Target: L-arabinokinase
Amino acid sequence: MVGSEKKSLVFAYYVTGHGFGHATRVVEVIRHLIQAGHEVHVVTGAPDYVYTIETQSPGLFIRKVLLDCGAVQADALTVDRLASLEKYIQTAVLPRDSILATEVEWLKSVKADLVISDVVPVACRAAADAGIRAVCCTNFSWDFIYADYVMAAGYHNRSIIWQIAEDYSHCEFVIRLPGYCPMPAFRDVIDVPLVVRRLHKTREKVRKELGILDSQKVLIYNFGGQPAGWKLKKEYLPEGWICLVCGSSEDQEMPSNFIKLPKDFYTPDAIAASDVMLGKVGYGTTSEALAYKVPLVFVRRDYFNEEPFLRNMIEHYQAGVEMIRRDLLTGHWAPYIERAITLKPCYDGGVNGGEVAARILQDTAMGKRHASHGLSGARRLGDAIVLGYQLQRITGKDIVIPEWYSLAQNELSSRTQLPNKEVLDNSSLTRESDYFAILHGDHQGLPDTLGFVKSLAEIQSTCSPQNNKKLQTHEHLAAGAMFNWEEEIFVSRAPGRLDVMGGIADYSGSLVLQMPTREACHVAIQRNHPSKHKLWKHAQVRQPKEGPTAVLQIVSFGSELGNRGPTFDMDLSDFVEDGQPITYEKAYNYFARDPAQKWAAYVAGTILVLMTELGIRFEDSISILVSSGVPEGKGVSSSAAIEVATMTAVAAAHGLNIDPRHLALLCQKVENHIVGAPCGVMDQMASACGEATKLLAMVCQPAEVLGLVDIPPTIRFWGIDSGIRHSVGGSDYKSVRVGAFMGRKIIKSAASVELHYSLSNISSPQQINGFNPDNADEDGKNLLETEASLDYLCNLSAHRYEASYATRLPESLSGQEFVEKYLDHDDSVTTIDKERIYAVRAPTRHPIYENFRVKAFKALLSAAPSNYQLSALGELMYQCHFSYSACGLGSDGTDRLVNLVQEMQHSKSSESEGGTLFGAKITGGGSGGTVCIIGRNCLRSNEQLLEIRRRYKTATGFSPYVFEGSSPGAAKFGHLKIRLRSSSKE
Model:
């Protein structure tokens, strides 16, 4: 209790619209303020009963207003990042001016002495505009949470982060709760104990009221009122257990060992009366589990950046067990519950944070100053810097950093660097790799490979019984626990690719030119007989009593930094049905049902494809560690690198000799049919068959490798990231592909009709240019026959397209109209949406002309070095770029980069020097991602590239990642077979 004070104060308490968790902790602070005789006005979107169940007082006023939306959840465990940003824009950005005007007027009308925010950004700015002091009370801030969402949506949403952080900067200080995230936008920090709701009833009384015997074990099922319709079954619980269900719908049926709690049942009482809690990680759940020493079985909630910090706190106090989502949904609960009941939660900190916070707020409202202005810059960063910005600066997650974040960025830069940009000491790495004997293969001196082998040595070392280090990541622990370090491990490497020319024309059969990137994915794999396989605990429990069966276990390094589940496991028998491999459709649904682990389709899918296409039977268990330095969402084929590296490693471990071309085609099946992305084959081919400092020339019909094209020593290619996330699974890429296949079908149909009339010597109503049936010769008829059976669009020449078909193609066409006239577009990896309007002419024209451009580009590379050569090559790239835009696959960021290259190319300084940069184009699937740049191989080109990077950052706030250099493809690298030296037989 705060205690009696002379003056009654007025507090305006703003509560975020994200769930009830914030409201439930706010009530504890409010209760102490009101007990001290103060007046509290709560601005909230939560129901009244959340507040009144704890405090019924004339000093409590509830104003129902929603000023932010938090994170939008597709279900209890899935955060929709793009929908969250869109809703925030609609809720808080577009009506911002009217919100500020309304809130300023309201704050003045209630004569507020202090504004408290948990943690509504605009409330801090409204307080400043009204001339009222403001304080936040929270364990996270929305600028940190939304940072990851902005990277998924594209840097053009960066202003959201800037505005939120700027709003928070008007707050005097933050009352910081345990389990906090980095919050560097705040000027100062005061830490308080856990804010926990008090109990109303004893454990014994609650159990008696619910009819639970003292001898019975109780599980409380608490997912924040979002059970999402999951069906509960009696066999989910261990024998003799009872389950209390919170927040279930009125019509949801319960088995006999499940008890549905009334909607207004006071949850803290139920938690304290239970033996184990099953739920998601949120502040309210975590604080009450720790305070009442109830072990928590939690299911990971992806893409909510608060979670890792709370999860670390739970595990630090030995109060948590993580359950994989698949086991939650299939009812495989018993091993987790039985493990949790053995835990001894040891949280011994204070639980009176509500009282402490209320006292601080009261003192502040009465004029006390807590902020230490002289140290505010350093103190507001505190211990948030390193972990917070490691989270944001991992591969593919660069983030716009406002000015007040610059100290954090500078401090971090001395500690961490982006993968593959490090200056590595090869001799040091080689010494570290001496932990392993290389029984087969050659690391070829590649720094990233040496670094990966070193990381394996570190995992083995830190996970050994002799090592007592406490700070080990989940990824390291999981990897260390699944490998038998006395046995052989196979290592593969596959690079990403820079799309120099060809791009989306690959699925139409074009010639393409692709360069392997320096960035690559490494995979370590080990196979063991099921009886010798080291299984994670929950996988052990799944083993049948009659004997062990083969299990696949995967660890993905870097996942936790992006708040994604780092592990996946499955019984390999899940891929078999009635003695045969399951269909690709069933596999797609298998992985798609769990968004938290959909990433595993890229890795595990290689196993099913080998089973289906080559008839391979996998009798042994398999452990796979994936570590990729190829940035995601940049348009450089991070997915192909993972697929190729994985399949190469699987083949090596099982003695399979797969031709590199065939392996790439198999990997394409993984992406097309199991992941569900309709990409062409050039990505996998470049990753598998490419070589360093050369362009792989390939005709995609379906995958004929023409050979390797030397890059002249006078020419250099770079890639520069726009910061706009790209995905070949995106709707734009798919719709353009559908439009191209529609165009092909229309051309074939037109040629077939004309051929019919020419064979019948009848004039057609819409005669194709140049063919009059009265004088049509055999060559003309043969040409029509060829076009009537056109297998790839790129086999139609540009002049034939212009002369005979360009005007016959519609600019656009609805799916319904196309299906009614042509039935199908004959593409096995996309479907037509009848309700959608598809562009047809531009997507059809692009691959026909692109094929010509790539042929010309290839020929020009062998020409004598000159400015004319470079200018012509650059012009072809520019034409490709603008053709992408005509298809609808451009973006503001990639256009800006291309324009910057043009400005640099035509600047007076470049012209006087004979030119350095000569062309640029968007790459891969378009709609963001990376721009490929061609220039003279000289120092001045690098200087101009850095200037473009600087100008782009000035204009957008985003500092682009630059791809430079190349490395061998998976086939050229081969594989390593390694064994710990202590156990090698040398």
The longest strand covers residues 511-528. The radius of gyration is 31 Å. Residues 374-430 have pLDDT under 50 and may be disordered. Residues 321 and 339 are 8 Å apart (CA to CA).
